[in-house]
Specification:
Structural class: alpha/beta
Distance between the termini: 28 Å
Strand content: 15-25%
Strand order of the largest sheet: 2-1-3-5-4
Shape: flat
Largest sheet: 5 strands, mixed
Amino acid sequence: QFCVRLVKQWYQRRVRGMGLLKLPDTVQKINLLYYSVIVVFLGTPLWWYTTDTYRAGLPHISTLSDQKTLVHLPLPVCFNPQEVQQSRVEQMVVSLKPLLLSRATPRDTSRGKGRVFYDVSPRVETNCYELPFSVTFTDNVKRPSKAEITPDGLKVSLQKMERSISDVAEDIVQYLELPHLQNHIMSIDDSSLHAKQQDVRNAMAVATSYNILVSVVNPDPAAISLSYNLVSGTKQYLEPFIRELGALASVTYQTQVIRYVRLPHMPVKSGDGFYLSETNLPHLINPIESKLGTSTTNDINLIIYLMEGKYTSLKIKTSQGEMKDVPSFLSPQFGAVLLYETTNKTEIDHSETFNVLLPQLKQLLGLKQSSSANVSPKENYLMKLRAAITHTLRSIDTLISLVRLVDSIPNMVIGDHIADQVSSAVEGIDKAQSALSTGDIDEALLHASSARDAAEKSFSDPSILALLYFPDDQKFAIYIPLFLPVGLPLIVAYLEIVKQWKKNKQKTD
């Protein structure tokens, strides 16, 4: 009330000084009405239009969280017509399919907690040699009681197929590495699997691009003098490996030489050789890591550490007391390190180094441990399958997070380019899920990768990030100095009119 009286006195002095009080009441009311119309019907809409937050319409995303992704895994079944009739094989396949489905579906999915279903569909084929994986029913097996994994696929004896078909279904599931794949996929929603499963903890996060950094570390160039051959070695061994990955991701590589970096723990003498304890291996990376110059989480490090000539027959002692002949180890989600012996050597033999590092690189890309430095068609298929499923699920999670962010900040600007990116991501997710349901992995990976790129670009758009920390009190601080000088005199004038009207009413009564 005190503030109102002050404003009223100020208004009366100002109007009296202008001589407006001498005007008839009708003229004052007309002036008040005129200014009110200007403020309400012109000023307010103009302010509203110029300060309105533009929010482009986003596609309906809430249903994505309830969608299940069906992954169709075609399983060719081959046979020798001279050993068994096709009708008998077809009967075996019909009996085998429900057993495969029950084992391929993880338990969490059957309880409704998972988001991915696996449909293993065996079918009889006449030619299986050009396919990523296959199962062959034959009597040409060394041990009929066990399934035999060969470069051409899984061989199962007809004797075992007829006697224990449930065991054959389990052998096929293990051959397809479905438990390994399921661990990686389920870790997207269950982070505890990173602590429980070593293969999940080792692998790099699935990304649309990787950068492989090959580093040679020479702790003492004066004592260790040999040719690195790093450029020729990577061209001869690493580039063919990258080409074998195909469309898995955009993979680049770099090489560098680091000098004068010593290990914090040196090998211990044991008999005729030396060894490093497995418990000390994680500490060996710390002084090297600070010199690598890696900048992103998608960098994969392959480190060749040159050991001094006195360290011969170098091994790694495991926590169980066993000795590993190859002095190399894997650092989870970081890279691989090879302790290279330089005794009586004038140059680095990269056929030896990459024969050790490339199998570990395959583990970092999500494959099971293997001694082969080449990427088989089956491994390539499984890496693409894991990447396609992961990109699809990550895209869905990113879009759902974007919707929650937009709903939590009503004044956030949503430009047309963001809506276009979201629409592109939703379209890519639909196409990727459709391709996965038909078993077209290459098509699924293509659409899933583009969907993830579009989803992440929309979520991290600068126009969105700029408004994340714009509190409402700043808006009041901006608008009050504009509206108060205009609105307060009008309010006081209307109060005077109401007061005068009440006085006139009391006189008439």
